[in-house]
Amino acid sequence: MSAHTAETELKLIGKLILEGDLRCETGLHIGAGKGSLEIGGADNPVVKDAFGRPYVPGSSMRGKLRSLLEQSAGLAVPSELVYLSKRKGQEVRIHQSDRPGDEICLLFGRNPGRMERVTGDALETTTSSPARLTVYDAPLDPDSITPQMRENLDDELTEVKSENAIDRITSQANPRTLERVPAGARFHVRFVLDVLCEEDKGLVARFVESLRLLEDDALGGGGSRGSGRVRFANVKLSWRGRRFYAGGAPEEKLLAGADLDALQSLVSGEGFGGKLSE
Question: Which of 53, 80, 144, 212 has the highest local Cβ count within 10 Å?
Fold first, then answer.
């Protein structure tokens, strides 16, 4: 829990910019939610941009980071969860609270209103918190798909993984196919963390924690079946204080060409908060 209170005043101090590579250690599948099948196509295609290139939607990355932090903080329990949707078979539950120092709600934002809890009385709050963390869509680096890789792909940029579900009683097979971005592919990621008060500086370490959790979890679908293992590399961290926007002051480069070990050492070290000045 952070030091934020209901009286904390918000005024932009600056923005922390984190960029780097998201490298696929195994095939990556983030589904397109396609309602129809193409002849010869995979049952479960990956999401692609207007040019037909796979990408990682910022919403997918953001939702996964939030989920991992909720679990890490012990907040993925019925008394802490509210319904975003109660549509049968498509229920969506997330953590939400009206506590001023709730770091999950501070990072990802919250709106006032009435929300039904999974268990217990409904949550009714007038507390509103702007989201500090912005996660952008991550485009594919086409050069990461080498000519040697292309020779073994089912499509120009993707592979098709065949899977089989076996009925435990009849032994009947239920084959399915999963389109994936192949291992070795790279995406360019960009995160922006707004620092709106001194208390927000403590949220940086929690954000880095979510990135480390993701490296030992899975992104996208099929994670328990081998897909979605990723790693962050070539990380660059920059600080743009308010004077950068108001008066053209230069940005401060805090880290370059690093991994998450170096990033975490930096943000957890003494004096890091002092680098984040207007």
Answer: 80
What is the residue-wise DSSP string for 11-42? ---EEEEEEEEEEESS-B--B---SSPPTTS-
User: pLDDT per position in the chain (278 positions), as tens?
Assistant: 678 888 889 999 999 999 999 999 999 999 987 544 454 455 689 999 999 999 999 999 999 999 999 999 999 999 999 998 888 878 899 999 999 999 999 999 998 889 899 998 898 888 889 999 999 999 999 999 999 999 999 999 999 998 888 888 998 988 888 999 999 999 999 999 999 999 999 999 999 999 999 999 999 999 999 999 999 999 999 999 999 999 999 999 999 999 999 999 999 999 999 999 98
Residue 127, CB half-sphere, CA atoms under 13 Å: how many? 22
Q: Are 17 and 192 in contact (CB under 8 A)?
A: yes
- The structure's pTM equals 0.92
Tokens of 141: 């680096």
Q: Cβ–Cβ contacts within 10 Å for residue 230, how many?
A: 26
Q: Which two tokens stand for residue 103?
A: 């770091």
Can you read off the two tokens belonging to residue 257? Answer: 């060409």
